[in-house]
Design goal:
With 209 residues, this protein is an alpha+beta fold. Helices cover 44% and strands 8% of the residues. A hairpin with a 2-residue loop joins strand 1 and strand 2. It starts with 7 loop residues before the first helix and ends with a helix.
Length: 209
Amino acid sequence: MGRRIEPVCRLCRREGIKLFLKGIRCSGDKCAIERSNQPPGMHGGTRRLKLSDYGMQLREKQKTKKIYGLLERQFRVFFSRAARKRGVTGEMLISLLERRLDNVLYRLLFVSSRAEARQLVNHGNVLVNGRLVNIVSYLVKPGDKIELKKKESLINRVKANLEMLQDRSIPGWLVLDKDLLEAKVERMPTKADAGLPVEESLIIELYSK
């Protein structure tokens, strides 16, 4: 699978908002967008072009891809799934993306970024319903139980993350037992649960052309 290798702080500056791609660092004074809130590149501070309708649609898609750490082909797969479901396509898309296992670990505050969550899953440290799952795009469903391997170093690391991220809240569709570090999926996530700075309707318009 392909992966991004460019500096992720440039991605936030390109979109003009914090995408929280570097975990704790994004909340501190070391955040790049706090020091320079302008597009990357030598002409970033001088070029402020008005976007066309297509440009705005493209930016919303790119922003969503960056938030969830997806490449174009992966994102298209999720869009196709959402388009086949009953309901509002944009909301279905956000719901599917939220159900990804790497995102679930991020929402549970086990990790400080989705990139760290992908590493956790790839290394075989996550169990769903008692079975090892090492596929980051695995979609959880209501009733699923999520837990970690009982390794002391891993448990200590996750507890440290929970302590550092205690000012963040866990969405209502997930329930976490912080003592046992076990979580349960209560229901399907909604657009409101995600709380993303994204206009998903523009993404639908882009793919509808």
